Automatic annotation (TrEMBL):
Residue ranges constituting the Sushi domain according to the UniProt record: 66-131, 133-201, 202-259, 260-317, 377-451, 790-846, 960-1019, 1044-1104
UniProt keywords, alphabetically: Disulfide bond, Glycoprotein, Repeat, Signal, Sushi
Lineage: superkingdom: Eukaryota
Protein name, per record: Sushi, von Willebrand factor type A, EGF and pentraxin domain-containing protein 1
Keyword Phosphoprotein: no
The organism of origin for this protein: Litomosoides sigmodontis (Filarial nematode worm)
A Pfam family hit: Sushi
Molecular function per GO: peptidase inhibitor activity
Disulfide bridges in this chain: C102-C129, C230-C257, C288-C315, C422-C449, C990-C1017, C1046-C1089, C1075-C1102
Length: 1106
């Protein structure tokens, strides 16, 4: 195998390019009218008809263009090529191609292809094979790498390259040579000789089985994995898999098998639990006492997740059948026992009726829903039923005979009778007697006394019959309504319907009066339906309909049989019952209320208080006693203020390495001293930074001073912070002890303009005072400044500005940093076209919460119990069931804003509140709450001020997540959120001895896909040593980073090192300092062992406190 030098390759390609562009399959050049058309060309043409002979056609003849050619034309055979070969077609017809090639060790000079032309000659000149005097790329050895660094891929004679096994592999034996050398072979051609090396994978010791578990895996070589599992009844605590590393050790720590135990079950009231075992697989049985109703599962089993399969049930008490005076319970005997939830019907004895509306009673945990009573059935005074009997009188029958029915006798008991008697000269029309039956006089026909001498008595009787035949169907009363006859008495022509308590007319316009016309009641007799309920007035709450999950406010309607659940606002807790159940217009149980939350005090060893209380009421205060000071704490709506602890333990594993970029920055972190936040500045030159360190980049002359110019160290990784840049003198990129600067590590979109046609490697160094002009690489466009200067000053690169390079067609999507608090002005998407952004770059205007300029109001967002993110398009995406609070900031004294929403799914509670924002307390905000968000809640939410100005927030409710990224060898992935919701950032880092080749992070985007693919972890390799002294000799044992140790660091006065103190520390190992009692630590309390064998500067001091 051989390669051709680049200049020679280009020389050979030029004839080939001319040949390719003129093949019959390509577009034929138009040279018919050109004076440069070769003399050997046939007649030019444009179509076959222009060719005179029938055996000729208009075909493309290379540089001659379209010509009249005989397709059967052939060329002469080609002569063999010395030290090479020719691939030719068998027929040598017009348009056939011949390909030339050389034997190994020779290179082709001339065209690699020739074509048969219409003049029966082959195109171009005959090539030749010349002896190759350089070696190509060194041979590839499995799992080995060499130190060859030829950029052209060609090596001179006598060149040597050395081979070493890659990380994770070692030499099979010490025999054989590790060098390959470029020499001439017997045919005088350049060829590589050697190496004789074999590399095999490192092996790890077989890990031991954990107690109550085992290790699965047959391979122990480099990058092999073993899997841990536990026996039944135990669960794994730690890593499920471990990987064999390049160093021959297993990654991570050995896991353990922990016995599975479920928590103790709570007491079962009105019952008992059989079994007290809490181990995995244990089963307990729930038993209710005799006569109790069992609501829930009959058993529970301890599962492998240390949870019981079912919750504890409820045992509800039954009821005894009551004794009803003048009545009884149907199909039951007094004192008989019935279960919770049973319904029974009450009936009264003869001549009695139930005074209540509902005759069915329900047993509810030992108590009846209500207790009905039976009262005697009475009939009203006859005058109300029959009126005055003209020409006669009404008599009441008694034991002593009949006597006049006095006016004061208002009611008559069941079974009594009255007599109708006419005076002398009158005749009674109708029955002479009426009896009280079920509260009514029967028969109800009105009687009359008619004079015996009246001439039309017979006609009167006939008329009454006709009138009776036109009566309407009688309307009966029941538990829902009462019937009052207002006209007609025995033959009612007008009645009034009165709904019973707990009922109302179905139509609000109905007055209950109806008339009998043509044997029909007009209007139609109205129906009485059960009363609905109004949501009661409660402060600091909102209600959720149990059926539709619609949010209700005080005064909203809850239908009969329905219910609502009361939910306390943030900072409040429930006291009493939270269920509102509507039954005939009234709540079955008294609803509770919400009071401010109480605060629980932390009981750590370092926290001591002035009293033995474990919790505080709202606005209650207590003193926290630390070793050096006393802090006054106050409970405010369930939160302790200030949030202060006497001790703050930090883990060294959570430190972050210095960011790998060249923009200057300042570094600091904040700590709590005596209840107030104090800023501690750090050196920007240190190699690592402790957790909670904030880096803010120094402003440069590019106009972007309010973008995301900050990062924060969290859990060993850097995360973006929306912080402005700071105005300070530019910091320096790299440091050299001799004042010289290393080659800057520039991105592929940049290039150095003032170094031309010169070989520059990554190991090149530049003297003090050097100025590099940086521009955009070919194919990239500049955002603002055309160039950027970098100057070497005291071993550090200093830049006066930043240069942003973008390729043509690049799109930038803009959104405001503080969503809702800023107003976006302009287009959200701009495109790079010919070095200009089209359209103009948009702006974000910060809105005034005090509304002093009568502008749009800012909207502050608070989200609880869910996941959320803001898309690049400026939409708020939240997961289902998230609680969203939209707080429209506007002074209450200036008027009442209103919320307008595009969704009609439900109504949302709105109320005034006070919030703390940007260090200011007591700011007025008109708040809208979306509780338990659902997809139907998505839409636009507008806060409109009295003057018409508005601000809008768009909400999308959807569970959009990305799938976990498949991990690869030596790659560590840390997610900012374990839920992998949209907006989650995956941070990539490699194990020690490897570097990240690719993107260092990937973001979960709205379609549920990651923005970048997984990077690779490449082994760190030291560059070859350059020895300029001929008397100096060196032996390279390994190119892998490592082998440097640091001595015990200097301990500050009145301070100590936390943990074990060692004589030597490995590279990147961290030590933590702390002060003795009575002293306060200032400066950086971390120090990291660097590759140079020195510790990072700390400037730590222990100051006497007091």
């Amino acid at each position: 195998m051989f390669t051709v030098p680049l200049p020679l390759l280009l020389l050979l390609l030029f004839p080939l390019i001319g040949l390719i562009c003129c093949t019959p399959t390509a577009i034929c050049p138009d040279v018919s009218a050109s004076s440069n058309r070769p003399n050997y060309c046939k007649k030019a043409c444009a179509r076959d008809e222009q060719c005179k002979r029938s055996n000729k056609k208009c075909l493309c003849d290379g540089p001659c263009g379209l010509s009249c050619v005989n397709p059967a034309t052939t060329c002469h055979p080609l002569v063999d090529l010395p030290n090479g070969f020719i691939r030719t077609p068998g027929d040598f017809l017009f348009g056939s191609n011949a390909e030339y090639g050389c034997n190994e060790g020779y290179v082709l000079v001339g065209p690699s292809q020739r074509r048969c032309q219409a003049n029966r000659e082959w195109s171009g000149s005959r090539p030749e094979c010349r002896l190759l005097k350089k070696c190509g790329p060194p041979p590839e050895i499995p799992y080995a790498q060499h130190d060859g660094n030829s950029y052209s891929g060609q090596y001179e004679l006598e060149s040597e390259v050395r081979y070493n096994c890659v990380s994770g592999y070692h030499r099979y034996s010490n025999k054989g040579i590790t060098i390959a050398k470029c020499l001439l072979n017997r045919e005088k051609a350049a060829q590589w000789f050697g190496p004789d090396i074999r590399c095999q994978a490192m092996e790890c010791k077989r890990p031991s089985d954990p107690l109550h578990g085992k290790v699965l895996g047959s391979s122990l070589t480099y990058q092999s994995r073993v899997t841990y599992s536990c026996k039944t009844g135990y669960r794994l605590v730690g890593q499920v898999q471990r990987t064999c590393l390049a160093e021959g050790v297993w990654a991570g720590n050995e896991p353990t098998c922990e016995e599975i135990r479920c928590p103790p079950l709570p007491q079962l009231h009105n019952g008992y639990i059989e079994g007290d075992d809490t181990h995995f697989g244990a089963v307990v049985v729930f038993r209710c006492l005799e006569g109790m109703n069992h609501i829930g599962a009959p058993y529970a089993k301890c599962q492998d997740d240390a949870r019981w399969s079912h919750p504890v049930p409820t045992c509800l008490s039954g009821c005894h059948i009551p004794e009803i005076s003048d009545g009884h319970v149907v199909n039951h005997m007094p004192s008989q026992f019935v279960l919770h939830g049973d319904r029974v019907k009450v009936e009264c004895a003869l001549k009695h009726e139930i005074a209540e509306v509902e005759t069915t009673i329900v047993c509810r945990n030992g108590t009846w829903s209500h207790m009905p009573t039976c009262i005697p059935v009475l009939c009203e005074h006859p005058l109300k039923t029959f009126g005055i009997l003209e020409g006669g009188q009404i008599m009441l029958e008694g034991q002593m005979g009949a006597y006049d029915y006095a006016q004061y006798i208002s009611e008559v008991e069941e079974g009594r009778s009255i007599l109708f008697q006419c005076k002398k000269g009158f005749v009674l029309i109708g029955s002479p007697k009426a009896t009280c039956v079920s509260g009514n006089w029967m028969p109800r026909k009105k009687r009359k006394c008619v004079s015996q001498t009246h001439p039309i008595v017979e006609g009167q009787i006939a008329w009454m019959r006709r009138r009776r035949s036109a009566e309407c169907e009688p309307i009966s009363a029941d538990y829902r309504r009462k019937i009052v006859v207002t006209k007609g008495n025995d033959s009612p022509t007008e009645i009034m319907i009165i709904c019973s308590k707990g009922f109302h007319f179905e139509s609000a316009r109905t007055d209950g009066i109806t008339f009998c016309k043509n044997r029909r009641w007009t209007p139609k007799v109205p129906e009485c339906i059960p009363d609905d309920c109004q949501v009661p007035i409660r402060n600091h709450v909102f209600f959720l309909d149990v059926g539709s999950e619609r949010i209700l406010q005080s005064g909203d309607i809850v239908l009969h049989g329905g219910g609502a659940r009361m939910i306390c606002l943030r900072g409040y807790e429930l006291h009493g019952n939270d269920k509102f159940e509507c039954n005939y217009g009234a709540s079955i149980q008294q609803i509770g209320y919400c009071r401010p939350k109480r605060c629980k005090l932390e009981t750590d060893e370092g926290n001591k208080y002035s009293s033995n209380k474990t919790e505080l009421h709202h606005n209650e205060e207590i003193d926290m006693i630390c070793e050096t000071n006393v802090i006054r704490l106050k409970c405010r709506f369930g939160e302790i203020q200030p949030n202060f602890r006497c001790i703050n333990n930090e883990s060294s594993s959570s430190s972050c390495h210095r960011p790998n970029d060249y923009q200057p920055f300042v570094a600091y972190r904040t700590t709590n001293i005596s209840g107030r936040l104090v800023r501690l500045d750090m050196s920007p030159q240190q190699a690592t930074f402790p957790k909670n360190t904030i880096i803010q980049y120094i402003c440069v002359d590019n106009g972007y001073t309010s973008n995301a110019n900050g990062i924060e160290c969290r859990n060993g990784e850097w995360f973006t912070r929306l912080l402005p840049c700071v105005n300070a003198s530019p910091a320096m990129f790299a440091t050299q002890s001799d004042g010289m600067c290393n080659m800057p590590n520039l991105a592929s979109s940049y290039r150095i303009l003032n170094i031309k046609n010169a070989y520059v490697s990554t190991t090149s160094r530049f003297p003090r005072g050097t100025i590099l002009k940086i521009g955009c690489a070919v194919g990239f466009l500049i955002e603002e400044a055309r160039t950027m200067e970098m100057r070497c000053h005291k071993g550090k690169w200093v830049t006066a500005g930043m240069l942003h390079c973008y390729s043509d067609g690049t799109e930038l999507i803009f959104s405001c940093q503080e969503y809702g608090m800023q107003q976006f002005v302009g287009n959200a998407v701009i495109t790079c076209k010919e070095g200009t952004w089209v359209p103009k770059i948009p702006k974000c205007i910060t809105l005034d919460p005090l509304n002093e300029n009568d502008g749009a109001p800012p909207i502050n967002l608070e989200l609880e119990q869910g996941l959320h993110t803001v898309t690049p398009r400026g939409y708020l995406v939240v997961s289902i069931s998230t609680m969203v609070r939209l707080q429209c900031l506007f002074p209450r004294k200036k008027g009442q804003p209103r919320w307008e929403v595009s969704t009609t799914y439900r109504r949302y509670p709105q109320s005034w509140t006070e919030i703390h924002l940007h260090g200011k307390s007591g700011m007025d905000a008109y708040e809208l709450t979306v509780a338990a968000a659902r997809p139907e809640d998505g839409g636009f939410f507008h806060c409109v001020l009295p003057n018409g100005h508005r601000n809008t927030v768009k909400i999308i409710v959807k569970d959009m997540k990305c799938t976990p990224l498949a991990n690869s060898t030596n790659l560590r992935i840390i997610y900012t959120s374990s839920h992998l919701f949209v907006g989650t950032v995956a941070q990539f880092s490699c194990e020690s001895g490897f570097y990240v080749d690719g993107s260092r992070s990937s973001t979960c985007l709205s379609p549920g896909k990651w923005s970048h693919s997984l990077p690779n972890c490449r082994a760190l390799q030291c560059p070859p040593l350059v020895i300029t002294n001929s008397e100096m000799k060196a032996v390279v044992t390994t190119f892998r980073a490592g082998g440097v140790k640091c001595r015990t660091p200097k301990v500050p006065s009145n301070g100590v090192i936390v943990g074990e103190v060692k004589d030597e520390y490995s590279v990147r190992e961290v030590v933590v300092f702390e002060c003795k009692g009575g002293y306060m630590l200032t400066g950086i309390d971390y120090s990291v062992c660097q590759a140079s064998g020195n510790w990072t500067p700390t400037d730590v001091k222990c100051m006497l406190f007091g």
